[in-house]
Amino acid sequence: MSRGKGQVAVITGASNGIGAASALALASEGFQVALGARSVDKLDEVAQAIAKETGVQPFVMTLDVRNEADVKHFVAAVVEKYGRIDVLVNNAGLAKGVSNVIDEADTTNWDQMIDTNVKGLLLMTRESVPHMIKGGNGHVINLGSIAGHQAYAGGAVYCATKFAVRAITDSLRQELLGLPIRVTTVDPGMVNTGFSLVRLGDQEQADQVYAGMTPLTAEDIADCVAFAATRPKHVNIDTIIVKPTDQAGAGKVARRL
Ligand code: NAP
């Protein structure tokens, strides 16, 4: 399909999981895609697979969304290559650890979650949206979570970052009212990606998270991203909350063990 023809989509955290799948879904819709993440080798692999499947040759550049200079450099390079940015998928993000607040010995994990999930998203948005305004077309799609709607023990900081994503999304939609720019959050429940391995640091424990239930896949979420991005320009999808059929909320999971 070619509903994205002539448009450029930037996807952060595109080296794995939901970001990689969203990049493929958008390229399949005819978007040019610019991929950023810290692991450039993995980005290259994702780009090759996208080129093979869709014929779209992605732009690839190393990007740490926590680093302001990196963000400026990345966005400037995309604009130099394509002359525009139409869609920003603020997907780069992570949870680190499952400690209760009073048990967390140092603040490294807190800093990483807050700097990536909140500050990184803000930096990417601030750098990209002026180019959308200039081009007369834009769409910011933020990856939130059901953790942005419902907090749980052991997830205070991750949940706080996703509540923040929801607040930023709502503020931004009001700030950009009157401009041809759409603002969406996609808020998933459990998705089987690299997320749990990054959070828990152990593959066996990560596999246990999905034991006896059927989680969402990265492609399920990429479908939601592509759906929001390909609606007619007068249609703003505010929020998509999407959970596995086996999940009714944070920690409420049907398992067949
Ligand atoms: P994933 O497979 O671990 O992918 C995360 C991506 O973020 C990777 O490409 C990683 O790439 C990138 N990333 C992490 N820190 C970064 C940084 N500082 N700068 C640039 N890129 C960075 O996890 P995922 O499930 O696809 O997660 C994507 C988003 O979905 C996150 O925002 C997450 O919070 C959200 N989400 C996930 C779930 C779930 O159950 N999986 C549920 C709700 C919401 P590098 O390591 O190469 O930088």
Automatic annotation (TrEMBL):
<dbReference type="Pfam" id="PF00106">
    <property type="entry name" value="adh_short"/>
</dbReference>
<dbReference type="InterPro" id="IPR002347">
    <property type="entry name" value="SDR_fam"/>
</dbReference>
<dbReference type="InterPro" id="IPR020904">
    <property type="entry name" value="Sc_DH/Rdtase_CS"/>
</dbReference>
<comment type="similarity">
    <text>Belongs to the short-chain dehydrogenases/reductases (SDR) family.</text>
</comment>
<keyword id="KW-0560">Oxidoreductase</keyword>
<protein>
    <submittedName>
        <fullName>NAD(P)-dependent oxidoreductase</fullName>
    </submittedName>
</protein>
<dbReference type="GO" id="GO:0016616">
    <property type="term" value="F:oxidoreductase activity, acting on the CH-OH group of donors, NAD or NADP as acceptor"/>
</dbReference>
<dbReference type="InterPro" id="IPR036291">
    <property type="entry name" value="NAD(P)-bd_dom_sf"/>
</dbReference>
